[in-house]
Amino acid sequence: MKAYLKTSGRLELDELRQRLQEAEETLDAIRSGEVDALVVSGPAGEKVFTLEGAEHPYRVLVESMNEGAISLSKEGTILYCNSAFARMVGISLDQVMGHDVCEFVPSEDRDPIRKLIKQGLRESIRAEMTLLPSSGTCLPTQFSLNPVDLEGKPSIGVIVTDLSERKRQEEAEAAVRMRDEFLAIASHELRTPLSTLVLRLGLLERHAVSGDLNQVQASVNRAKDQTERMRRLVDRLLDVSQLASGKLKLELEQGDLGEVLKEVVERFSEVASNAKCELRLIAPSGGLSARIDKFRLDEAIGNVISNAIKYGAGKPVSVELKAKDGKAALVVQDRGIGIPAEDLTRVFGRFERTAVSHNYGGLGLGLYIAKQVIEQHDGSIRAENRSGGGARIVIELPLVKGTEAKAV
Per-domain residue ranges for the chain? Predict the structure, then answer.
C-alpha cells in the first residue's frame, strides 16, 4: 500500500512539472511575439484570446502602409513583407516570403541590388530600383534600407516606394520644357527667313516700279531661297511628328550607297563653297548595295553633312564610304568646334543642341532625324571627337550579301 501511494505521488509530481514546463514555454513564446492568440478550453467550450502586445500597433501600421515593407536576411531572403509589397510584385504574400529579393527585379539589376544589401547591413541607404511584377511591366521604385537586429541576427528593414507617378510627372514636366524650348527655337528660326522674305518682296516691288529687271531677278532668287529654307524647316517638323507617332514608313529597295552619297555631296557643293569648305568625297569605284529608302537616306546623310559644314565652316569636310565586315561605313569629318565629350550621345536627341552650338542656330533636329532613319534601316550612328579638332559622325548600314567583295 505504501509503495502504491509513493508511485502515485511521483506520477502526479511529474505531471505537474510537465505542465509547468509547458506554461513557461507558452509564456516565453508570448514574450517573444511568436504567439498571437491563445485557445483556452473550458466548460463552455474553447475560447480564443487575441494577444495585443507592444508590437501589435506597429504590425497594424505596417500593414496599412501604402509603401511596401520587407525585412531581409543578410543573404537577401525575404523574411517578411506587407500586403503593399505583395501587390507591387503582383503575387500573394505566401509566395513572396522565403524567396530571394533578386527574383523580383530584372536580371540586369540583380548585381546592383546585392551590392545594395551588403551596404544596407552597415548603414542606412536609399537607391532607385526597378521591380519586375508578375505582369511583366517594370515598376520604378525607391528602396530605403536600414540595418536592424532580429533576434540577434543582422537583417535589413526596407521601405519600397512606388515612383511611377513621380516619374510620369517628371516626364510630363520635361515634355513641357521641351515644347517651350522648341517653340522658342522654331519661332526664331522661322522668323529669320520670313523677315528676309518680306524685305526681298519690298525690294522687288521697288525694282519692278523702276523697271530694273536684273535687280528684280536677283530679288526673286533671294526670295525663293528664303522660301525654300522655310519649306525645309516645316518638312523637318513634319518628319519629327511622323517619327514620334510611328507613322514614318520606309519604302525599301536595293540601291547603290555610293550613288546616293554622290548625289548628296553634289547637292551640298554650293553650300560648302559658300561656307568656304572644301567638300571631299572618298568612295570605292564598285557599287555597295543595301536595302534602302533612297529619299529618307538621302535626307539623313544630308543632315549629317549639313551639320559638318555649319560647324566646320572655313575648313575641309571629308565624306568617306567604305565596306567592312559586311557593313558599309560612312564617315563624315569636319575640323570645326567639335562636340563636348558629355554631349556625344545627347546630340542625337530631339531638339538637342550642345552648349557650344547655341550660337549657330537650328532646331536641333537634324541628327535626331538622321538617327531615327538610320536605325530604321537596321543601321547605327555615333558621334566621336576627331583627333586634331573637329567631330566625326560614323554611320554603319548592313550591305546586301556579296556586295563587299565587288567594291574596289
Answer: 2-50, 56-162, 167-245, 253-406
